[in-house]
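Show me any protein, keeping tokens residue-aligned.
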Amino acid sequence: MKKLRFIIAIYGLCLGNQLYSQDGKGMEYAIKDSAQLHEYRSRIPGLARSGDSKGLAKVYKRIGDYYYINWRLDSLLWYYKNALQQYELSKDSFNIFYCRYRIGETINHDGKDPDESLEWHLPGAGFFERTREFDLAAYANYEISKLYKEKNETGLSQKYFQKAIELNKIARDTLLDIIFLSDQCNSWREKKSWNDVIAGGQKMIHLSRMINEPVFIKVGLVHVAMGLLETGKPAAALPYLEESVTFSNVTRNAIPETYRLLAICHLRLNRNKEAEEFLTLYKHAADSIATQNTNDNYQRLLLQFETEKKEATIAGLQNENLLKEKLSRNQKLFIILLATTLGLVLVAVWAFSRNHRKRRKLKNELLQQQAKHAQQLQHEKEEKMTSEFNKQLAEVQLTALSAQMNPHFIFNCMNSIQKYVLKNEKAKALEFLQNFSELMRHVLDNSSKTRVALDEEITMLEKYIVLEKQRLDDQFEYKIEVAPNLQTDFFEVPGMVIQPYVENAIWHGLMNKNERGKLLLKFEKQNGFLKCIIEDNGVGRIKAAEMEKGRSPKHKSYGMTIAKKRLELLQKENEKLPEIVVEDLYRQSEPTGTKVTIFISID
């Protein structure tokens, strides 16, 4: 079983090599030999001195592709990481995620911590899907599912595996379909669901024959044979095993498994002599393979597959050319006469069946009209729902903008500017006015966007906090922390959602505090989510509510209610509702502030 999985892993690598063929999006122009590798290395110093980031990134990437094909892990990691640094300078999004994908795949095959591979893989999977690079998206999701399986997180593993299957329905990569089937057959074998193993193996054989993949033909034959043996049908299993032996020159690592099953099959058919022969072959093959170096086998099998495939293609082309050269004039004439005769027969058949086809055409037109009408009704229904959703979303966005920059806040800002002017503090007035105008412009620019870049949202929040801090005569201090592994320019969040909670912390927590308050904003990544923490050391929600009862409601914030409604509308589009957790902080039964945690999906 482990040997079969080993072969499938090799073919996963082959599939990764075949995904793309455009320059900058694959390896059609990859380095072919060591002489060309030396020539590419010689370009690096000159490109580095000239500061040509794009050229340097392309050279690093192509050298990395060369080592990837030859599977030299340490070297390919070094070059892909250097290529990634250069692509980040030129902001080449596709190649940034392509390099991250290759690095994550290499780390995974190197047997390191699966969490490290996930850090490299997860952003790329979402990017490839958004940019409609469905081949890469399908394979990336498949790699992620295997990583979660290694972590024994079955739910997430199954989720990404199903997503890979759905994406490949668009990409239509037959080889990847075969790999999915093989994984499913292995799962069914573990669950002893033998009827599913038989059906999956037969489908795997059919698809593998279509694209002439002998390794997976062999694997499919073994799956079907094992299922038939386990369901008490050794006679039916025997032909599959006998055929699988013919592929031994291609799938050498799977020979012991085949011989073992053949021995069991003959034993159940009471053929003790044949069973003993295959048992001897099984022991010999197992001992022979155990003495070989695993890495050597891996490279040899991969190179043998690529070489044989190329040689078979060249031989086929040569034979085809020889056949064409040997065609005589009489043979050509015979082909023309045969084609003419076939044409006449087809015309006769067409004339005979014309009336029948007319009836079928009328029937099909009627069915098409009915289907078109049903499709039109469904389309109108979807357009109506989409229009209603967009209308609600726009209304809430405008309301959210109004709640953020509410008249009371603007009025207070104007009073602060007036106060500085009357005191002849022109520098403070100008500084306050500049901060206020920058904040207003930033909010208005982003008010029409459903999602904004995380770094832009953090910038807006800091401008808002600085303005409130200045207006309230430095009554509190603040701190913004961003985790080192969080790339704020790659991830997007719903705009104007975090600010209402920051405002609430200042107005209801810190303003009611006698001494100088503290405000903390913290951003980090956790299990595929952006975790945003807004924490203050104010008086707490209960005491703030008591203090507000006796006051005139001059400042009443609806921001958090509007933000929640906006997220509910966004859920209709993304089906991923962020989780919001509000906690009251205590020390020795005394309230010491409030902590709000928002989890936003960044897959």
In short: Strands lie at 451-453, 476-482, 492-494, 517-526, 529-536, 579-587, 590-601. The CA atoms of residues 128 and 136 lie 6 Å apart. Residues 1-24, 291-321 have pLDDT under 50 and may be disordered. The two ends are 33 Å apart (CA to CA).
